[in-house]
Amino acid sequence: MGIEARELKRVKLYEQIVANIKEQVLSGKLKPGERIPSERELAKLYGVSRLAVREALSALAAIGLIEVKHGVGCFVRKVEPRLIPANIGISPEEKDRAMELLIFRRGFEPEAARLAALYATEQELDRICQLQEEVRNNIVAGGTAVEEDFYFHMAIVRATHSPIFIQVADAIEQYWLECFRLCKKHTLGVPSRLPVLLEEHQIIIRYLMYRNGDGAYKAMKMHIENAIRKLET
To answer: Are residues 101 and 62 in the same domain?
Structure first.
């Protein structure tokens, strides 16, 4: 009988590193709070480039296994094994959930940005700028800034001073945060994804600072539509 051939999938280097570190976390060899070696140390340990290590650390942060602290390092997070994804990519069901919320956000957040441009206090604008720096710092440190990105968007909603907008955002907070995690997982391995995010955030901030409601609306809509396009690929 001849050999039955199956499609072979190429496993990227960073995926192999993720699988190895995840295995050590699940086995208890790496414990919660333990510091992960630096990019340089991991690159030497695995015999790969620092780019591959950076992608691996981003993936581990996106699936919630490690926490990236700017200027300090990466640390193992305390997480229940059953909550650790089986793989890096997202399932069709997860993709559907993320898309559902992105479509909602496309109608919700642009108007929130418009209102924030009109009604945000100077302190709230300063806070939004500070959160953008936290997003940037986390990315520079090798993370994916999942929570930092989420809090950036939530700060804009709170700056609307609209009780209804704020109540809706609070009601779906956990679902919304899950959407950020899934979208980051989906775009892992795309080198341009995070610099583009920072640039889009900066455009939104510029319109907020100029008190340009229409500009903030369009910038936010473009930002979310780009996220939808990435999820569709």
So the answer is: no
- Listed residue (182, 180, 169) closest to 223, CA to CA: 180
pLDDT tens digit sequence for 132-154:
999 998 877 767 788 899 999 99
Contact 17, 52 (CB under 8 A): yes
The enclosing domain of 39 has a CATH number of 1.10.10.10
Residues 6+ apart with CB under 8 A from 128: 116, 120, 152, 155, 156, 159, 205, 208
pLDDT digits 0-9 by tens, 12-39: 788 888 889 988 988 889 999 999 999 8
C-alpha dihedral over 231, 6, 19, 97, to 10 degrees? 30
142 touches 57 (CB < 8 A): yes
Q: Which residues pair with 69 in a beta bridge?
A: 73
